[in-house]
Amino acid sequence: MLRFQELAFASTPMGELTLRRRHSPEVDAEVYEVKLGDEYLMSSLFTVAEEELARLGLAAVAHDGPLRVVVGGLGLGYTAVTALDDARVGSLAVVDALPEVIDWHERRLLPVSPRLVDDARTRLVHGDFFALMRGEPGTDPALAVHLNAILLDVDHTPTFTLDPSHADLYTVEGMRRLSRHLRPGGVFALWSDDPPEESFLAVLREVFAVVEGHTVEFANPVTGGTSRNGVYVARLSSTESTA
């Protein structure tokens, strides 16, 4: 049995991007991993928090549907396919800055790819999520207007970003710009590698009516212990936006 199999490789502006599959003796199963340079970005060993991002974010939406949802960051696809499990979702746009990642799914290289790309509600969008959030709602055809939910999983944490250009989103002004893309009562939810931090909860409270920080615990078969990620969930007032 091959220990590693490289499924895709590309040189990107952010560095060398690799998708590989390996057999994990810890769980006796095939594991898919993404590396950017020497850094591990994600692994199919750990998808609980990414799935909870979709569940917790959409659970906070008090609307019967159909919901208009945007996911920032495609990755291995677990947040997006979990969002599709919610029957209220009428349209799902998944935005990723790397066309190579979109290509992986269109080629069905990952376990959830068929579920994702074969669902008529899904659009995979090559674009800069952060630039889209800076723009005026309705000016870019990649995004629907009056979104019910925005689910974001790109950076490690609000203070540990993959690229310096992302940092302005995690300010009060950045959250105000993002909130313009949401309808009244709309929800913004964010995955973080660390449990919720009070500093970013305070930023969210400046813009959103209801703010919650969730710590998501899951078994780590590599360490034999428990790991913790964070999910921030913030909802606008149902009567007005912060535009």
Could you explain how this protein is built, in words?
With 243 residues, the protein is of the alpha/beta class. The protein has a single domain, classed as Vaccinia Virus protein VP39 (Rossmann fold, 3-Layer(aba) Sandwich), CATH 3.40.50.150. It is built from seven helices and eleven strands. The chain has a seven-stranded mixed β-sheet. Strands 1-2-3-4 form a four-stranded antiparallel β-sheet, with no helix packed on it. Helix 1 packs parallel to helix 2. The longest helix has 12 residues. The radius of gyration is 17 Å and the shape is globular. The chain starts with a strand and ends in an 8-residue tail after the last strand. The model has no long low-confidence stretch (mean pLDDT 92).
Chain-averaged pLDDT: 92
Describe the global form: globular
**Can you tell me the CATH topology?**
Rossmann fold
The CATH superfamily appears as Vaccinia Virus protein VP39
Q: Using only CA atoms, what is the Rg?
A: 17 Å
Count of distinct structural domains: 1
Could you list the spans in which at least 5 consecutive residues all have pLDDT below 50?
A: none
